[in-house]
C-alpha cells in the first residue's frame, strides 16, 4: 500500500528523525525517537561495494521495472537487460554473477530480486537513476 516518510515514498532505507511522520498504507504514525547524544540522526549500515560504470548500468537495467512504483514488481529478466544494453545475455549473466558476489548474495533462489533490493538499499541505484533510464 506504500510507505512514505514526511510525504516522500520510500524506495530504500532511510534514517528517521524525531517527529518524522510515517505513512504505512492508510495508517499514519509519528516517530517519537530521541536524538542521539551527538545530535546526528540514525544511519542505516549498508555495505556499498565499489562497482564499475557498466555494472551500474546493469543494476539500473535490472531495477528499471521498479520505477513504476508497484510494490511487488519483479526486476528485469536477463533477456530484457541484454536488449536494453545491447549486449549478449551471457554478458549480462557474467555481470550479475560478479555483482552478486560483490553484494554477498549467495544461492540461485530469487537472486535477481535480492540483488535489486541490495542495490537499492545500499543507494547504488536511486529512483533518479531509474527515472533517467526510463525517460
Word description of this protein:
The mean pLDDT is 85. The protein has 135 residues and is an alpha+beta fold. Helix content is 39%, strand content 10%. It has a 4-stranded antiparallel β-sheet, with no helix packed on it. The radius of gyration is 17 Å and the shape is elongated.
User: Helical element count?
Assistant: 5
The end-to-end distance, rounded to whole angstroms, is 25 Å
Radius of gyration: 17 Å
Low-confidence regions? none
Give a brief rundown of this model.
The chain is of the alpha+beta class. It has helices at residues 53-63, 78-85, 89-102, 111-121, 127-134; strands at residues 3-5, 8-9, 21-24, 27-30.
Write the layout of secondary structure elements.
Elements: E1 3-5, E2 8-9, E3 21-24, E4 27-30, H1 53-63, H2 78-85, H3 89-102, H4 111-121, H5 127-134
Antiparallel strand pairs: 1-2, 1-3, 3-4
Helix pairs in contact: 1-2, 2-3
Descriptive key words:
135 residues, alpha+beta, four-stranded antiparallel beta sheet, 4 strands
Amino acid at each position: 500500500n506504500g510507505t512514505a516518510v514526511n510525504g516522500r515514498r520510500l524506495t530504500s532505507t532511510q534514517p528517521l528523525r524525531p517527529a518524522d511522520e510515517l505513512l504505512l498504507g492508510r495508517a499514519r504514525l509519528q516517530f517519537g525517537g530521541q536524538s542521539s547524544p551527538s545530535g546526528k540522526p540514525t544511519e542505516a549500515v549498508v555495505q556499498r561495494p565499489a562497482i564499475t560504470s557498466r555494472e551500474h548500468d546493469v543494476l539500473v537495467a535490472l531495477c528499471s521495472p521498479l520505477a513504476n512504483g508497484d510494490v511487488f514488481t519483479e526486476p528485469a529478466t536477463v533477456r530484457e537487460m541484454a536488449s536494453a544494453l545491447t549486449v549478449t545475455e551471457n554478458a549480462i549473466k557474467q555481470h550479475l554473477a560478479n555483482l552478486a558476489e560483490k553484494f554477498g548474495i549467495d544461492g540461485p533462489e530469487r537472486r535477481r530480486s535480492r540483488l535489486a533490493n541490495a542495490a537499492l538499499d545500499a543507494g547504488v541505484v536511486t529512483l533518479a537513476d531509474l527515472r533517467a533510464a526510463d525517460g
